[in-house]
Specification:
With 93 residues, this protein is mainly alpha-helical. It has a domain at 7-56. The protein has one helix and two strands, in the order αββ. The protein has a two-stranded antiparallel ribbon. The longest helix has 34 residues, at 8-41. The chain is flat. The chain starts with 7 loop residues before the first helix and ends in a 39-residue tail after the last strand.
Length: 93
């Protein structure tokens, strides 16, 4: 894969985006820790106080298509959307 070299403006925006990613990761970690503590303090029951609610929501798990014997010899690509999923990742090297 080849990459196209860009100018200083591109580099400046990439630096700011990278900083934002790092801050987001720090805040996500803080959020995970706080929610874990809240879960513990809630004794894993839906709870509320001071205008806040912490609700336990349960949903069914994802389907493990590879574990369905009837689908073992089926090409599931034939059933995929024509539109590819495109994502981008910024990283520092």
């Amino acid at each position: 894969m080849s990459f196209i070299k860009r100018d200083k403006l591109w580099e400046s925006v990439a630096k700011e985006a990278y900083k934002a990613q790092k801050k987001r990761k720090e805040y996500e970690e803080m959020e995970r820790e706080l929610l874990s503590k809240l879960k513990q303090l809630s004794s894993e029951q839906s709870s509320e106080a001071g205008g806040f609610r912490f609700q336990r929501i349960e949903r069914k798990g994802a389907v493990k298509y590879s574990a369905i014997p009837a689908l073992q010899n089926i090409n599931l690509d034939e059933y995929r959307s024509e539109t590819p999923v495109v994502s981008w990742k910024l990283f520092r090297y």
